[in-house]
Specification:
The strands form 2 sheets. The chain has a 5-stranded parallel sheet, with helices on both faces. By secondary structure, it is α/β, with parallel strands linked by helices. Helix 3 runs parallel beside helix 4 and helix 11 packs across helix 12. Helix content is 49%, strand content 20%.
Length: 326
Amino acid sequence: MTPRPSDTARLPDRTASDLVLIVDDVPDNLSLLHDALDEAGYTVLVATSGETALQRAAQAVPDVVLLDAVMPGMDGFEVARRLKAGPDTAHIPIIFMTGLTDTEHVVAAFGAGGADYVTKPIRPQEVLARMAAHMQAARQARQARNALDAFGHATMAVHVSNDKQSGKAVWQTPLARQLMHAYFAVDPGQVPAELLQWLREQSSLADEGREGKPLTVTRLVSQQRRQLVFSLQERTSDDDWLMVMREVSDAAVVDALLQAFKLTMKEAEVLYWVVKGKTNRDIGDILGSSPATVKKHLEHVFEKLGVETRNAAASLAIKKVRSLSV
């Protein structure tokens, strides 16, 4: 049974661009869910195998995945684990669809990264309600993470084991995931030995009531020598360590200006060189643009920053960069 318009209107807020990936090897199940979701206004992708599901998710990242637990070849549990291991798909809520209700299978579903599960035979209205609730929660969490990133605060929470010999990143903003991958080539959730050793030292200092020191990691990233600085913030209520990381490089400053003031890349580059005291002609030579083009970019910068002069724009930018360096 597909939901009536009056039913879907009571579901949590959603957008017209919500994308759902259904993974099931039984055509009848796909058809039932596809029709219900289509009528409710969702955009729907389908996959009949685990391998195809991973390909679909890589091509167009869905907002939620409805995943059959038992399929030939790669089962749903393995699909979930791989999605959660990918930096671009780790945030997607996964709802398992299964006829297996034994405790061990339910535990396996959550252990693989599932946010929820529904039992077969599928009741579309129940699926729609659960799915919309999880999508809303995921969207709110994503907005919170993006807000931190927009101000250059790449944030990560790490849980260190009782024996302090291992750790796991239990929460990361998108920017934090990108930086961890760029500097350490680790999957989401992994904590490199260098960072874990620093956390152990900070924990010991905190236990002694002493203040810790930031960790600076230097790497060759995209053929540029760049530095990533970790600062410890506090322990959370779950006894996890909350830390903020920031890059120290020209590219990082340009990116911080871009995100903080909602500039385009060219506008951020122009503002960066204005801060450095360069004229429009100098900036044009550096960026390969004409002085007139630089002037046009600068006019857009003034408008977005709410200022009228290059000195005022430079002053505002310097304050922002300094605030991100604290």
